[in-house]
Structures are given as structure tokens and as C-alpha cells.
Amino acid sequence: LNASIEIDFLHPEGAIDDGIYGQFIEHLGRAVNGGIYEEGSPLSDANGIRKDVLEKIRGLRPSILRYPGGTFTKIYRWMDGVGPRSERRSRPNLIWGGVEDNHFGTDEAVAYARLLNTDTYFAVNMGTGTAEEAGNWVEYCNGTQDTYYANMRRKNGHADPFKVKYWGIGNEEAAGPDIGRLQDVKEFVKEAWLYTKAIKLQDKDAKLVLCGADDAWNDHVLKEMGPVCDYISMHHYVSSDKTKPASLFPQVDNMEQLILTLKRQIQTHTTEKVTDFSKWYRFPHRANGVKISIDELGIWEPGGTGAYQLEEYYTWEHALGTATFFNIMIRQASIVGMATWAQTVNVLAPIMTSKTASVCQTIYYPMQFYRRHAGNISLKAAVTTPDLQVPGSKDAKALDVAVTMHEADGSLVIFAVNRHPELAIKADLRSIDTKYTPVTAYELNAAGIDAVNTLDNPAKNVVTETEKQLRGPFTSYTFPAHSVTAIRF
Ligand code: AHR
């Protein structure tokens, strides 16, 4: 199969926000308890942190940690999760089942984010909670004055503010079946203003993520709240139809269309800078343009195990889909400001645990690969590619490409995902001077698209990364079947 890649060096897409390498963890099944945290386990430290899991997450070098939900936020009382553990309240987890003992709460999440060296992103309760409670939480975390909740944090052993940077106003508030009460967007906006006041007047630097949903919802939120909206959220989960080969990819690719639609809405309803403050008196407005926060991004196949059947094994094909997600976010870098993978451990996750071991799933490796190799500037490229036939659905591209540049040393990285299950693709590399060396091609691959890593044999990794030194000049590169490649010039 043949393809071509022609890079446009004159019109870069823009800077790639580090925020796209985020992770999300919720009090759901074994994501927190039994995932990142397991008191009394021989694999945990004295604070209950699973050391093996921490090391694996560190391997991804995440930039942001989103917590405590998800839908769980709609019942979460942050006060349950602070102070001495022995005095914390246990409550039924009314969203996901089981009992939440609250031994892992705000202080532990912030400490965990520090272990990972990430920014923190907390989502507040718009279900059973109030704007006032949300404001108190901000005061507890970020307050610097001699005030009640800031002093409560100090009393709990944390003299310095936590500096929680991002605050999510709601989570999937448009969703009907759970405990949400703001499915009508007008109700949401009315309430979200109260939360905005409560949060921003506690911390003028708080970055707000407003809950997004369908087009009509997003239009309204952006129109009404644009001046205080740093980010609008998008959730994107994909699944495949096992009877139809490659059916995952059109759904993965659809994320790009959704991003472009939301980008147009942002451009229609908001301006880059806020200049009219009359309506926003006393409200610190946003300083930059509105960006998209894809704060739940994941692969949700039916038929897993565990709570809500959300524990599942991912094949190498899923990993190719994951790599494509990163290509899309790079291609749309000027509007995608952050993304947090849903979720980090056990629940739809790149890392799985048992009581005695943990394993990195196939999808872990592309996450690590992009983090390691991507530059900080996104360049556009014109790509021709053969199609991948997807029965009963629109065909997908066989070769998916994104291009980045490392500003620090000017090096260029072409990412190419060959999603064809059997055939290699030879791509002409146009507008690139390949006579300069060294040129290195890094390739991730597995024996076939069905390959999986499992807890049955955690030491076995079906994913390989190879490195090839290339001698220029060359005019084309052949991407092997089902591979993820980064060529660094
Ligand atoms: O990630 C699992 C769940 O999916 C989250 O709690 C919710 O926000 C989404 O529907």
C-alpha cells in the first residue's frame, strides 16, 4: 500500500499543551481502593500507596490528575475525606455501589499528585452539594489567609496551600439516569454562576472547566459563561463491534469532528480576550481563549468484569486506537487544552492490578510513547492514505499521521499509525530533507492486533519498541502492519 506525507512548515497548528497527557481517577470500583491505594498490602507503603502502581503511572509522566469523579462527584462530600483517617465517615457509594471509607480524600489526592509531579484538577459536586461547599473546598485547598477552612488544612498538617489549579464545575450534568438535577441547560447555567462566584472569589487564579454536553448545551454555556470559561469539557468513549473488523477506528476518528464542531462554537460565542467587564464585575475573567478539556477519554467495550463491568483487557488494536487519539489531539493542538484518560487503574485502564501484581496493558505503551517522543509544536501535514474497509460503517484511513517539532532543538517528529491489520504502507516523505543524520525511527508493535497483556502473566509484555538508525537521503519510509512509529529528524 502507498501513501504520502507532506509537511507544511509555514503554517504551524500551534503549541501542544502539556495538559493532554493527563489521567483521571474516580472512586469507582477498584480505581482508588485496590488500584492506586491499598492499605495493609505488602505492595503498599506506610500510607497505603501501591508502590508498584505508582511506578507504572510515573512511567507515563502524567501532567494532570483529575479526581474524585466522574459521576461520583455528584454525591461527594469533600469534608468526608479530610482529617484523621480514623475519624472519617464511611458512606455507601450511591453511584457505583460498595462502601466508600474515605481514607483516600483531598489530602491524599494532592499528595499523590505531588508524587507524580502533576497539576491537580478537582471536580465539584453539583448533585447533592452546594456552591458554598465548593467554595469552602477551594478555601481548604488554596486559602492563604487566617480563615476557617484554610486553618483546617493547616491543622491537618498542610501549612502551605495545595494550589489546586483546575476546578471542574459539574460532570456530565446533562446526563439523565444518575443523580444529576441540572439536565436543563438553563438550570445548569444559573447554578454554575453560583459555583463560579464561590470558586473564583476564593481563588482568582482558579481555572474553570465548565461541563459540556451536546451542541445545543455547549452553545448556551459558551454564550452565557464564555468570559469565565477557561475550558469546556468533552467526554469521548469508543467501543468496537467484535463482528466487524476495524470498527473501533471510525469512532476514534469521530473525535476529530467533535473537536472541530466545538471549536467552531467556541469561535462563534467567545472572544480570545475578555474586554467588556461590565457584566462580570468583581469576577476575575479568563486570561486566554477558551480551550477544550477532553477530561474523559477512553475505550469502553461491553463485557468487562468488576464494578459495572468496567475492568477489561485491551488488545493491540485498542492501542492503535489510543495512538490515533494522540495524533488527533496533536493535530487539533490549538484548541485542545487538556485531556485526562478515563481512567488510570483497573477501570477502563492502562494499568490493572491484583492483590499480588500489576500489569501495563497494551494501551499504556502508546500513551508513554507520545509523552516521550512528541515535541511541543504541532505542524500540519497533507497526507494521502489508503482506506481501511470497515463493514457497515464509513471507511477509515489506514495511515493516521501527526507531526510535531521540539522547539528546544528544532527536531521534527512524524508520528504514523498504520492501522492495517496485515499490510505495510510505504509513504513518500515530501518536503523533508532526509540527508541530515541522525534520523531515528522508533517503532511500537505487537505480533498481531489481538495481542494482550494480562495479569495471568504480568512479566510478559507483548508490546515491543524497536529503534532503527536511518541513513539519509531517503524519500520514503515503510510503516509495518499494525505499528506506531515516531521518526525523529
Ligand atoms: O469513567 C466512568 C464514568 O463515565 C464517569 O464516572 C462518568 O463521568 C462517565 O459517564
User: What is the makeup of the main sheet?
Assistant: 10 strands, mixed
- Average predicted local confidence, pLDDT: 95
Task: Give the second-level CATH assignment, the architecture of the largest domain.
Answer: Alpha-Beta Barrel
Which blocks of ≥5 consecutive residues have pLDDT under 50? none
Instruction: Identify the CATH homologous superfamily of the largest domain.
Output: Glycosidases
Tell me about this structure.
There is one protein chain. The protein has helices spanning 51-58, 106-116, 131-142, 148-155, 185-200, 215-225, 248-269, 316-331, 364-373; strands spanning 2-8, 14-15, 22-24, 64-67, 91-92, 99-100, 119-124, 166-169, 207-210, 231-238, 291-299, 336-342, 351-353, 358-360, 377-384, 387-388, 396-397, 399-405, 412-418, 425-430, 439-445, 464-470, 476-479, 483-488. The strands form five sheets. Strands 1, 2, 15, 18, 19, 20, 21, 22, 23 and 24 form a ten-stranded mixed sheet that branches. The protein has an eight-stranded parallel β-barrel with strand order 3-4-7-8-9-10-11-12, surrounded by five helices. A two-stranded antiparallel sheet has the order 5-6. The protein folds into two domains: 17-374, Glycosidases (TIM Barrel), CATH 3.20.20.80; 378-488, Golgi alpha-mannosidase II (Immunoglobulin-like, Sandwich). The chain has 489 residues and is an alpha/beta fold. The radius of gyration is 23 Å and the shape is globular. The structure holds alpha-L-arabinofuranose (AHR).
